[in-house]
Protein: Vignain
Amino acid sequence: MEINTFIIRSLSLLLILSFVESFHFHEKELESDESLLRLYDRWRGHHQVQERSTERFNVFKTNALHVHQTNKLNRPYKLELNRFANLTSSEFLSTYANSKISHYQALQGPPGCNKNSSTYGGVKSLPIRVDWRKKNAVTSVKTQGPCGSCWAFSAVAAVEGINAIRTGKLLTLSEQQLVDCDTALNNGCEGGLMEPAFKFIKEHGGLASDESYPYVGKREVCCAKKFGKHSVTLDGQENLDGKEESLLKAVANQPISCAMDANGDFGLYKSGVYTGQCGHTNLGHAVTIVGYDETPEGVKYWIVKNSWGDTWGEKGYMLLERGIPEPEGRCGINRNCAIPLKGPNTPNKEL
Ligand SMILES: *[C@@H]1O[C@H](CO)[C@@H](O)[C@H](O)[C@H]1NC(C)=O
Ligand SMILES: *[C@@H]1O[C@H](CO)[C@@H](O)[C@H](O)[C@H]1NC(C)=O
Structure:
């Protein structure tokens, strides 16, 4: 009896460990098609993937060779064969980074006409480093799943941040409420924008907790019964003007929602400061910047909270290079950022 419990405990521990631990491989495993096939099977075992096909093996093989080539280069970041390693880049983007920010921005009006950076424009001195996680203003990393709701995750993390800063209480808030109810311009799993999401929260009596309006990963009918007793309110929102300096000033004061172009090696990112290739015009993904810092070698970076679970990247985060010559920033991160505004005296709504 006791032995059985022990075995079951050890087994479940093993399962948890094998899921959380990242997948390692040796150069030798890339030598031939046979060894690559064995690597593919080992990867399938690690990630509990049933499906096994020549097509998927071909994709995996390309990704495995690419991860190995990239990691051999002396770059400040590493890639890995994570659970996305059986997807092509376009499959990955259309499943997990599909907020179509550029598309919705175009529907909303030409960029540049509706931007200002007045709230933090006057900020004079900036701390050398900022990490809102250390100030209890960032909730644990969430998982959007195969739904183009990154815009909602990006927006909610920023609202969680300013709410924690203003009230001293870190609450986990609802993406699903935005996916279901914020439908004037935004479009559930088909994508959306963060700034209209903030506007929606301001105009519709606040944002519910995740507990009362939990995430289901698909668009359902908006359900007012799930709004619960406590809603987090906002005073308004502001779009940043696209300058890195404005973004820096804003992040020094609260977590900020930004769109980005996730083309490139984003999906297979493991750790370090991402300085790699990615586009900067097709803003399809959305994230939340929760701080900034630089490495001992002087590579400056943003601390980016993602919504692909905590087994992706650095426990769900990415360090993204900043301070590059291109004004749009690495992966276009400077181009479309928005701030939820909440004054020190704005109470939340209790029902
Ligand atoms: C790809 O891998 C994931 C697990 O990471 C699995 O759920 C999915 O079924 C796989 N897809 C294909 C087409 O093999
Ligand atoms: C620009 O700033 C003004 C005043 O600070 C504010 O009322 C307005 O809503 C802002 N516009 C946008 C589009 O954010």
User: Anything to note?
Assistant: Confidence is low (pLDDT under 50) at residues 1-19.
